[in-house]
Write a structure and sequence with these properties.
By secondary structure, this protein is of the alpha+beta class. The relative contact order is 0.16. It has helices spanning 15-20, 25-42, 95-101, 121-134, and strands spanning 10-11, 46-49, 53-56, 59-62, 68-71, 74-78, 83-87, 105-106, 110-113. The strands form two sheets. A seven-stranded antiparallel sheet has the order 1-2-3-6-7-9-8. Strands 4-5 form a two-stranded antiparallel ribbon. β8 and β9 form a beta hairpin. The chain has a single domain, classed as Alpha-Beta Complex (Aspartate Aminotransferase, domain 1), CATH 3.90.1150.200.
Length: 139
């Protein structure tokens, strides 16, 4: 069986240049606010993963199948319709924060938010911190 290779990888593309190219002024402003928040909480340098994901920190994973790779601990992507916030720890221990967050949707490891004014930023800070701490010691 052929080895699966992940297409989304960390790269040297400029995070600031990526955000500055955004046409929607409010989305760009919210993106810079998220960037500042994630840097403050994680104390990690933001890196581009693929074409449009900004990730913070990284860890190595290996599945039972033998597939292994590197992924970011937490990140976000300013998609056209919504922000995708990648919460790699999952949401099992974050129910309290999700209940208080405001308007959002949840996928397996993604939190979807239309705009930052729809949510409580202080609760998002808690959620990001808890998720990042959960993966803190993974290398």
């Amino acid at each position: 069986m052929a080895k699966y290779e992940l297409k989304t990888k960390v790269n040297d593309k400029d995070v600031i240049a990526f955000l500055e190219k955004m046409e929607d002024e409010k989305k760009r402003s919210d993106s810079f606010e998220l960037l500042d928040l994630f840097i403050k909480i994680t104390n990690a340098e933001p890196k581009m993963w693929g074409e449009n994901i900004i990730g913070f920190g990284s860890y190595q994973y290996k599945y039972d199948s033998g597939q292994a790779g590197e992924w970011f601990k937490i990140g976000f992507s300013p998609r056209k319709a919504k922000f995708s916030l990648y919460v790699m720890s999952g949401f099992n221990k974050l129910e309290d924060q999700l209940e208080r967050l405001g308007k959002h949707k949840v996928g397996k490891s993604c939190l979807y938010v239309n705009k930052l004014k729809d949510i409580e930023i202080s609760v998002l800070e808690e959620l990001v911190l808890e998720s990042f701490k959960h993966l803190k010691f993974k290398k």
